[in-house]
Specification:
Elements lengths: L9 E10 L2 E9 L4 E5 L4 E8 L5 E3 L20 E2 L5 E2 L3 E4 L2 E4 L8 E2 L12 E7 L3 E10 L10 E10 L3 E10 L3 E2 L3 E2 L2 E2 L13 E4 L1 E7 L5 E7 L11 E2 L14 E6 L8 E7 L5 E7 L3 E5 L22 E6 L14 E2 L5 E11 L2
Length: about 350
């Protein structure tokens, strides 16, 4: 791990074109050991450079070289998902006796906030953080009443903060003037070899979850919570991602929400650990959320060439999306996702990067 007494923290910003007439920026946060690049288009992480055990740096997340391509980002590389991450069945929900119809962008369902979700918005860069122990950027966006069918004006603030110990913090902050469901997440895909390996099937993964939410044939929750014991979804002990992936036939790989252990609102705990023996890189994911969506890039076809200069093929990366459960507004037994006027949603996820020698 980086010697925190020697790390020099920096945050830099440069303009990089326009999207629909709005100024785009590339923000770089660094600490001499880890470099994080972001854009205000979709509030997306575009690159994370970390060192392997030989001190060779690679970009370990999927993204685009051309920032303008985040406007049409069908795989949601690195972006903020919302207003509601995951699927909402039938693109509708009932709240306080009223039925709300949402935009449909996944058959008859809504996925990740709709046709023009937060992932496609140009966020305002509010300020930068330049402290002795951390550096970062604060972005904000106002989602207006009726946006993609959701009630209420929703003010969302995202903080990306890198500290001297190679922890990248993502802090979500939202308020509303009408009751509305809110489920914000980041959709970064990781390949700890820097995509040198063609897939992540040899990556080792551990998820601190005794159960998962069962999917139907459309990847929607049935409402049942199933123990992972005796299933391919048992990652309680570290195992290679590819060990049981061929047994998951319905989605051609993992695309499941895990019910994380020891959940209590506001309580941070270790959710997952991803590691690559070849490079020595390790990623710890901490969150205060009740769920973690595991997605193994099942629909990648190799037609996208990333900034690493390599094709993004099937199972070339893995997403670990901290979240509330999918379709929670239609499942009263799931943790409540309704944000009401006078309340404030504050949630944090931490990506911790280090090397196992």
């Amino acid at each position: 791990m980086l010697d925190s007494n020697k790390a020099q923290l920096q945050v830099l910003s440069e303009s990089c074109g326009f999207s629909n007439g709005e100024q785009l920026y590339l923000v770089t946060i660094s600490n001499d050991d880890t470099i994080v690049k972001l854009t205000n288009l979709g509030a997306a992480i575009t690159a994370i450079f970390t060192a392997d055990r030989n001190s060779v740096h690679h970009n370990i997340v999927a993204g685009y070289e051309d920032i303008s391509r985040y406007r049409d980002n069908p795989h949601y590389f690195g972006c903020i998902l919302g207003r509601y991450a995951g699927r909402i069945a039938g693109a509708k929900f009932e709240l306080d006796g009223e039925v709300f119809s949402l935009s449909e962008n996944d058959g008859v369902n809504q996925l990740h906030g709709g046709i023009e979700g937060l992932n496609k918005k140009v966020w305002k860069i509010k300020s930068f953080i330049r402290e002795d122990n951390e550096a970062g950027v604060i972005m904000e966006y106002l989602s207006p009443d009726g946006d993609e069918g959701y009630p209420g004006n929703l003010w969302v603030t995202i903080k990306y903060i890198l500290d001297k110990d190679n922890k990248l913090k993502i802090i979500y902050d939202a308020v509303t003037d009408k009751s509305t469901p809110v489920n914000l997440s980041n959709h970064s895909y990781f390949n700890l070899t820097g995509f040198v390996s063609g897939d992540v099937l040899k990556h080792t993964l551990q998820i601190n979850a005794d159960a998962y939410t069962e999917n139907d044939e459309h990847s929607l929750p049935t409402g049942r919570i199933i123990p992972v014991d005796g299933t391919p979804l048992n990652f309680l002990s570290p195992k290679e991602i590819g060990a049981d992936i061929t047994d998951v036939t319905a989605s051609d790989g993992f695309n499941h929400n895990f019910v994380l252990n020891d959940y209590f609102p506001g309580k941070m705990r270790l959710a997952a650990t991803l590691s690559d023996a070849a490079s020595g890189r390790v990623l710890n994911v901490y969150t205060d959320r009740p769920g973690l969506q595991l997605y193994t890039a099942n629909d990648w076809t190799g037609h996208i060439i990333g900034p690493q200069g390599l094709a993004y093929n099937k199972h070339a990366a893995v997403a670990l999306e901290t979240q509330f459960f999918p379709d929670s507004p239609n499942h009263p037994g799931f943790p409540d996702t309704i944000l009401r006027p006078g309340q404030r949603l504050i949630s944090e996820t931490i990506y911790e990067f280090f090397v196992c020698k």
